[in-house]
Amino acid sequence: MTTPLEPPAPSGRPPAARPGRKLGPVLPNIGSAHRAWLDPMRGTYLASGMTLSELSTRLKFAKSKLSELLRGVGPYPRWEIVYLLAAELEIPNWPLYCLWKQAAFEARKTTDWIESSTERTPILTTAPTTPPLEHRAFRELVETNYALFAQAFLDDDQRDVALSDTFDILWLSWNDALASHDTRRFAWNVLRATVMSRTPHRDGRPELSRAAFDTVALQSLTEPADHINQVAESLELFTAMSRLPAHQLDVMVLRRLCGFLPDAVSALLGTSLATVRSDERHATRFLESVLCPPHPTEGNTP
Question: What is the pTM for the complete model shown?
């Protein structure tokens, strides 16, 4: 089970008023890879002030088809129409293409279909464009730390894909990220949504069991019996951690599994140091109540 990729928090800009019928919501059952590029495209369209009628006139596509594309309705869209719509909305096409191609494979499209879908656009004959300087600097600053967080939930291949998707989505949404209250918080929301969309879930909660085999405590043990006991304790801990609210879970993963100090966690999450400490305190109390419940008093024992 996967958690749908949620669009990043709004930048605070009021949506532009537009005449005509309101664009409907994205279908809830589209794949996470499809949603990874569709949500930023929808956000750019909604902020642009343009109407579907205007886009239809400019692109020579039926308004109904554009509406379906922006809602994830019908067959997976060919690159030509996505490319043309992106050009009208001034969306950088290289990260969009990377996400579109990945989603095409998720939609079970063949390599031949993908190649035929792109043959009439310049995307395959031109070098990738370069992301904004601020985006590249931000990526260099946080990528290693983002990878440590993702590693707690995903295997190496899935971790690398999630990181690539995160920075492509941020590239598509970079103006919104800069306009948001805190770019770090905006970016963390994108990372978290991307990681959770690929994380196995049980009963609606993310599974952390793979992290049990990467803890510092486990790696330092030498006796087989100690390994078994530590794995059992770790699995119990991570099962309990999965029940934490999202913001508390993030803090505990960064603090207890990744080994970050509170001020580093604050910088990564884009939240105050006081909030990080409060989240950790409440999470620790909850985990202690689950893993080490108080013994009943003698008078209450049946």
Answer: 0.79
